[in-house]
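ESCALATION

Customer reports they have been waiting on this structure for their group meeting. Please prioritize. Original submission:
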Amino acid sequence: MKTDIEIAQLNVMDPIDRIARKAKVDSDYLEYYGKYKAKVSLTFQEKVESNHNGKLILVTAITPTKAGEGKSTTTVGLVDGLCAINKHAIGCMREPSLGPVFGIKGGATGGGLAQVVPMDEINLHFTGDMHAITTANNLVSAVLDNHIWQGNELGIDPEQILWKRCLDMNDRALRNVEINVDDKKSPSRREHFQITVASQMMAVLCLSKDLKDFRNRIDKTIIAFTYDKKPVTISDLKCGGSVTILMKDAIKPNLVQTLEKNPVFIHGGPFANIAHGANSIIATKLALKLADYVVTEAGFGSDLGAQKFMDITSPAGDMFPSAVVLVATIRALKMHGGQAYEDLKQENLEALNAGLPNLEKHTEIIRNYGVPLVVALNKFSSDSAAELAMVKNWCFERQIPFALNESWEQGSEGAKTLAHEVIQLCEKASNKYHSIVNANQTIPEKLEIITKQVYGGDHVVFSELALAQLKQIEEIGLDKLNVCVAKTQSSITDDPKLLGRPTGFDLHVRELQISSGAGFIVAICGAMMTMPGLPKIPAANSIDIDDHGRITGLF
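Update from on-call: job pushed to the front of the queue and completed.
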């Protein structure tokens, strides 16, 4: 079969105004970025505000492995599958980060015959949102350091600066740097870059309801403390207006299409292993006003993306999923059961059976929130009939809805069964969505609940640094903020080496970072880094472009 980029390049796209009509977006509200991409003006929100909401479907997955799970492929395939059975559906996805694109993970536009296009443009500069977020973030840093250099009227303590610079690239050399070197007027200090998709600016964008809400969140964002331990906000620096101006276009959702010419909003891209892992509330709520079914995804496994969607995004956006699609693959389950990556094409029922507890744990995580789910087994050509039957029977024995997803190879035709299952779930009256945390609980209490009910761990262990930060958070009255756990995606625990379904472990909180604009505290656990690094052989080594502008090697 052809590569993803070859399939995408052979596809004949519809002009974006035609896709907009399909999505029920008036062309007067489109802002064109070429022939096949457009932003939708925020004023369109007001026009459709009185529309009733469609059903929201959340796509999540088991613990990811390098064998692949195909969550984005399933998301796109399900949109096409719903449309193929004459349902009005719109997809909502995150924008790819350039870090993974040129690193190891790849893009975020699906694969095979279940892709969003123009795939190459979406995975690269797209409509410039990532650059706007990066620039707005670094404007705050520039104004902050300039304020100190110009006399430091606010009395900012350089050792208590919380705000970090960012770059949308995996660059481990920027994790810890020294700035103001050889500057006699301003003392040198340590700076810590993070990847743009882990920045608070990205989180604020994706959790804001509109431009006014964005500005309010930005203004109240704490960026530092003074020498007498008082918080300093972006409002104190008087640059909230400039930041908002830089973001006035990036805050508008982007409209594109699937290979089968169905509408998808791609907007915002917070990582789920560091940030909250969902596309923007603005895009999702707009889609809900336009379509009968909206399919969105949450990054990585349900212990990360789905937990954060249920406990952070849903309450912030006043929306909740009617059904959850839990994506799994035979290959990933066999890896969780101990089979080596190199041997995954070989049938191994013993390893598959040993890996099923990971799937079981993720079904339990979803059921914590009272939302009905279906297991979508993303089929690979190497899967044997006996292996497929084992997972199907495992689900039936536990009365868990099951559907085989073959959209990678067959497009919408391979997702129709899943689409029918999802519709049945959406119509169930048994949906009893609820968050497992509440606003009256302290940060340690919220972390204990997440550790025990989601990860299946025993206790939360705070480092000395985290305890000191917790005390500071309590002193400024932010101890009831929500929590966003930053941990490895490779395990339900904070140790990436523990596959399957570990038990008898603790969650080790290394650091607590204040994200007051986003409305949560980030609990950094284990060895998690907010600036990833490139692998020994990055994807950047294989991507090229010919004399006619044709891109190769992009997945």
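Sent to customer with the following note: The mean pLDDT is 96.
Escalation resolved.
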